[in-house]
Amino acid sequence: IKRLEKNAYVKGVKVIRKFPNKLIIDIDSRIQVAAIVYGEEYVVIDGDGVVLRKTDVEPHITLLKGLTISKLNVGNPVEAEESIALTNILKMLKAMEKGNIYFKKIVINKIIIKAYIYDNLICKGTPKQLLYSINSGKLQKVINKLFEDDITRGTMTFSGNNYISFSPVVD
Description:
Layout lengths: L1 H5 L3 E9 L3 E8 L2 E7 L2 E6 L4 E5 L6 E4 L3 E3 L7 E2 L2 H16 L6 E5 L2 E7 L2 E5 L1 H10 L1 H11 L5 E6 L3 E5 L4
Helix pairs in contact: 2-3
């Protein structure tokens, strides 16, 4: 059990003894949701920001760029100078799964983030604005309309009053 608990992918272990001769081992595992670009490496994290592993091979999950990492240990939560942005982005990643949306990468730049659906189809705003749009279903409706119109290039800008504007320009 101790060896299992040391594995970063294991969140918790329960052992139940069933008489007369059975042991049930219940493992609660962590699921990788994003990878932070860290120099030449990628730091794979779960939905709570816990570092699962480091790798030099680009994983096929959402990439996070622009974070200033202050502490990074496998099995512990990543610490970044942009801690509030990271917390909101982790919430966004959870909402993304429920809202059936996938961001290829998210670039953090002070207050504003750019979330890439494709290389040239971008959502631009604060994490809070994007989170609201995902949870309310507004973002999905806008993306579905763009796809219906065969538009896969441009920038959706999120502003106050939950307004989304679209421009065919990629900035």
